[in-house]
Each structure stands twice: as structure tokens, then as C-alpha cells.
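User: Hello, can you help with two protein structures?

Assistant: Certainly.
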Amino acid sequence: MTETTLDTLIIGQQAKIIRIQADKAIKRRMLDMGLVRGEIIKIKSMAPLGDPIEVVIKNYQLSLRKIEAQQITVEVN
């Protein structure tokens, strides 16, 4: 298992959230959206230039900016 950031994953790949390294306000917003440690997150689609990234977590779709995805450390199986 390897650790990387969410923005490096490819479409269809899934991983487990390990930690979020963001300032307090952004981290709180991410936690409120369900991006919590231990959850499985899957890349659904990506814009042509990689921003935004559409993910699936807890059976719902969420769009993240690339800069936000860079702050989420995940573990890939």
C-alpha cells in the first residue's frame, strides 16, 4: 500500500483517506462534506486540465478543486 495525494489518482481508481492537511476552515468544510479519515474515495471523472476532480464518497458525488485534492493524503491498495 502506498500513500499519495488525491490529485495523483486516475479515473476509476479508489483509495482510503489517511489525512487532510489544510488550514482549519478548509479542513472543517471537507470534514462536513464527508471527507473523513478511513473513508473510501473513488475518482469518477476529471476535467481536461485536471481541475475540478469529481469523486464518489459515501454513495454521493462531489467535485473538488485540484488544490483541495492535493491536501488530501490517501492510501492506494
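That covers the first. Now for the second protein you mentioned:
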Amino acid sequence: MEQSESPHRYLTPERIMIRDTAREFTMNEVLPVANALDPLQGEIPLALRDKLADMGYFGIRIPEQYGGSGLGVFEYCLVCEQLARGWMSVASIVARGNGTMTMSLLDEARRAQMMPRVVRGEYLGAMSLSEPDTGSDLASISCRAERDGDDWVITGNKYWCTFADGADYILLFARTAPPPDANKRHIGISAFLIDKPRGSLPAGVQGAEIPKIGYFGWKTFELAFDHFRVPASAMIGAEGKAFYALAQGLDEARAHTAARSIGLAQGALEDALAYAQERQQFGRPIAEFQDLRFKLARMATDIEAARQLLYYVCDRIDSGERCDKEASMVKYFASEMAERVTSDALQIFGGAGYTKLYAVERYWRDARLTKIFEGTSEIQLRIISDNLLGKPGH
């Protein structure tokens, strides 16, 4: 489906080229792999990861001095929308290289050493933050790290650590000091960069794969750290202040999730449009039935509304403006839209949509996750309402 090429405040010729190049790459390289491997719950092939590196997609947000493109959140989301149109996991794995949060925790010497490898796709990370009893309330993590001579000793369980086996390092957040009081629970959390062999968990760390209903292409783990030792140099950033790096990266992360949501919905819409013109019932294509035509019209409108809101949010982030409310709005709106649109697309396919013979079921399953990760829809509504009304008195 062609997108508008009319003059636009946001879509400069350079950005149109970036978008269209990413779409061509997705349709030729990502989509065929996703169609072949997702039904089998297969993993993103290393060959495809190498192609992503060759395209520069692991370094979109990394400064040119380290070999990256030095581009903004806008360009990053343009690319990730297209990649998600093929396979959401591929649009997510590029974030394992573009992590500006990791950069903010590193000193200059480590940036200069690490970032060129990240751009080449040789040093990708996995985030270890959530815990079995800690999801949205990230300030209440209980995994702890205690100093013992020249080491830190980490004890506790982590959950939802995607790519823990395939990554080259794990970025783990643990409590190194108790919070000063109940209103400052975010203080005392530190970050640790744990190097590991690609293809396995760190030696001494136990892991159990979590059986997911979607988001295939890579595995997600529960990890158990039992007096796991790391050198003092594994801590990055200021001790006890890592939560601030998390908070600073939330706007970009939520924009990224919105872009992925839009890509999923776009893929479902395009497939539904094609199927509706091919499928014959009662002697004519089902695309001639008014209710179905109106459904497609609503789907297309919802997608474009989310996309334009995303452009606005990305522009504000790149301009350095605070936009936590707007970032929550686009994450909420786009993820809710994606579940609705992909479900409508599956309905257009009828019984065929409830099979693995068509990609629409993949878009539908993956869209459901976008309402949960990077802050649930309910968390986004809380942020938006607190911005509008102030926080509740209690």
C-alpha cells in the first residue's frame, strides 16, 4: 500500500528515502523469513542480523563519531515501523543496538570501545529489569547486589529477559542500597553490564525459557542469580542512580513501541485489502460489500491517526522538549489501535485468518503484546491523567 508523497512538515525527502529503503528491505529480506520461521517459533537467523547491521540499523541513534548514523528518534521510528510490518521481533532486536540508555550510563572511554562494535551488530544487549513480582512498579525491584571486596555479588530472580541467550551482554538492574524512604524507592538501584558468550547464558546463571503465545524470533527467559559474582567494573553509571537513566529513556521507548504497533497494523491492513479483493463470495469479491469496505476505511484512518501522532511526538523528542504525556498518549493510542485493527483484519480473512497459513494471525498475536510491554495501557492512562489532573491526593 503506497503512502502519501505530498509535501509534509515532517517527511523530508531524506526521511522518505529512509522510510522507503526500510520498506524495501523489509519486504525482500524480513517478511519472507518471518513467514517461514514464525509459524515454527523459529529464531531470527544470524544472516538476517548481519544484513540489519549492513543497513546500519543497529546504529541509527548512535553518534557518527562511533560509526553510527547520528539520526533522531524520528528516523529510528520510521525504520522500526517498516521492520515491524515484516516481523515485530526484528523491529525490536535493532533496539538492542540503538540503546541510548546504555550509552548514557557509560563513560567516554567505554563508549568509544563499545559503540563501534554495537553499530556492526557485534555487541548487542538484553535488558534484565522486571522480576516475578515486579512489572509496572519498577522502583520496587528486589534483586540485590552486595559489595564483597573487588566484586559485586548478585542474588535474585529476573523475569521477561528477552534475548538473554543470544545477546553479547546483559544489562541488569539490581538494588545496591535500601531506599531512604517509601517515597524514594527509585534511589538505590544500580546498573551492571554483564558480558557473556553469544548463544548461552552467563556461566553460573540459571535460566528457564518462558512459553509465550507470540513475539517469536527470539526467546524470553526467567533468570536466577544465586550469589553471582561480577567485578566492580561491571557497574556502569553512578551507584544507586540507575533509575534516572531508565526514566530518561521512556519517551523514546514508548515512541518505538508505537512505531512497532503501527507497523503491525499496516501489515494487517495491506494483507486484508489484498485478500478482500481476491476472495469471492456470492459471486463477487468481498471487497464489494459495504460493511467490509467501511471496516477497511476505519482501519486505514486509525493507522494514519496513530502515525501522525507518532510523527508529532518524535519531532518533540528530537527537539529536546519534554513530552512524557504525549509519549504515553501515542503508546496508548497506537497499541490499542493495533490490537483492534489486526483483529478486524483477521475477521476479514474469516476462518483462514485463524490459521498459520496467513501472516495476519502473527500481526494479531504480536499486537496484543504492545498493550503490555514498555508500560501497560493502564500505566499510560495513569501518566496522562496525572498530567491533566495532578496526582491523586492519597
